[in-house]
Structures are given as structure tokens and as C-alpha cells.
């Protein structure tokens, strides 16, 4: 089955920055799953997936505007340390998760005080050109509940 809108895609990937440094990989774990055509992965990766089939392997380099966006100045904000999720002790450079009115958001810790932290709301990968090495593991038609919810369910996808 060819990857198209309303397909659930399972894939393994390795993500590298423009210097070739591996930032993350799914190898050694379960493949990632997403519902194609529903903005569940960055645009540049989703575009590169279209038309592929299970068993395909490829590399794609994604510019910032089709990835996590350009780096924007003025995205610093002070938040209570107790609102940072992901660690017990915080240091500059660490990535935390905070809850916003638009859902959870990754932020980079810039400065930490006793009660307040200064965080950068740019995505930690904003402004970077990224290369994905991808192996498409499986492709199937989405179920009606997955389409209604806008995401894949089951292994590698969202668990309800």
C-alpha cells in the first residue's frame, strides 16, 4: 500500500543535524506511527513520505521552514520552576515540557533561579536543517476512530 492521506505509517528513523551529529533514533525500540495527512509529523518529513511503500528506505534533508520553524528572537519567558516537567533539577540547556493553552510544549531552559526559570519557547530544533534517515516498516488504511481522532492508535501511536 502506498502512503497517502488517511494511512497509518510505521517507520524507524535516525535524525541528524547539519553537522551529521545524530540527535535521536527509533532504532532499538518500537517504530514510530503516525496518521498521514493530519499534520502529525513535520511537513518536510510528511511530504517525503508520500508515495512510499513498506520496505522503502530513504534520506531527506528538511529546511527549518518545513521542520520546526525558523529561530525567532524574543521567545524568552519566565515561568515558575514547578511548571517545568521532565526532571527534578534543572540546568541551562536542558529541555523541559510545559503545559500551555495549546497543549504541551518543549522549551529550552536558559536560566534557573530558586523559584523561577527563564525558558526559550522556540522549539529546541528551530532554525536547524535536519536530515532524517527513514525505513518505512508498515503502511495500512486508518480505522474510522483514528481518522476521527486525527492520529494513529496502537503501537508507536497514541494510546487511549
TrEMBL record:
Single biological process term from Gene Ontology: protein refolding
Main location per the UniProt record: cytoplasm
PROSITE patterns linked: FKBP_PPIASE
Keywords assigned by UniProt, alphabetized: Chaperone, Cytoplasm, Isomerase, Rotamase
Residue ranges annotated for the PPIase FKBP-type domain, each copy included: 6-80
Catalytic activity reported: [protein]-peptidylproline (omega=180) = [protein]-peptidylproline (omega=0)
Entry keyword annotation includes rRNA-binding: no
Cellular component GO terms, alphabetical: cytoplasm
Pfam families: FKBP_C (PF00254)
GO MF annotation, one: peptidyl-prolyl cis-trans isomerase activity
Subcellular location, record wording: Cytoplasm
SUPFAM superfamilies hit by this protein: FKBP-like (SSF54534)
EC number(s) from the headed UniProt entry: 5.2.1.8
InterPro entries given in the database record: PPIase_dom_sf (IPR046357), PPIase_FKBP_dom (IPR001179)
Family: Belongs to the FKBP-type PPIase family.
Function: Also involved in hydrogenase metallocenter assembly, probably by participating in the nickel insertion step. This function in hydrogenase biosynthesis requires chaperone activity and the presence of the metal-binding domain, but not PPIase activity.
Protein name: Peptidyl-prolyl cis-trans isomerase
Protein's organism: Alkalilimnicola ehrlichii
Lineage of the organism: Bacteria, Pseudomonadati, Pseudomonadota, Gammaproteobacteria, Chromatiales
Amino acid at each position: 500500500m502506498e502512503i497517502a492521506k488517511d494511512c497509518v505509517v510505521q517507520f524507524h528513523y535516525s535524525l541528524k543535524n547539519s553537522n551529521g551529529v545524530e540527535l535521536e533514533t527509533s532504532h532499538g525500540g518500537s517504530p514510530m506511527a503516525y496518521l498521514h495527512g493530519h499534520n502529525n509529523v513535520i511537513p518536510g518529513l510528511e511530504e517525503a513520505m508520500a508515495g512510499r511503500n513498506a520496505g522503502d528506505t530513504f534520506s531527506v534533508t528538511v529546511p527549518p521552514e518545513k521542520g520546526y520553524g525558523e529561530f525567532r528572537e524574543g521567545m524568552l519567558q519566565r515561568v515558575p520552576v514547578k511548571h517545568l516537567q521532565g526532571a527534578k533539577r534543572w540546568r541551562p540547556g536542558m529541555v523541559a515540557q510545559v503545559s500551555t493553552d495549546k497543549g504541551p510544549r518543549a522549551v529550552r531552559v536558559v536560566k534557573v533561579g530558586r523559584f523561577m526559570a527563564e525558558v526559550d519557547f522556540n522549539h529546541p530544533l528551530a532554525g536547524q536543517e535536519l536530515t532524517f534517515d527513514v525505513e518505512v516498516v508498515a503502511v495500512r488504511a486508518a480505522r474510522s476512530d483514528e481518522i476521527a481522532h486525527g492520529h494513529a492508535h496502537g503501537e508507536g501511536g497514541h494510546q487511549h
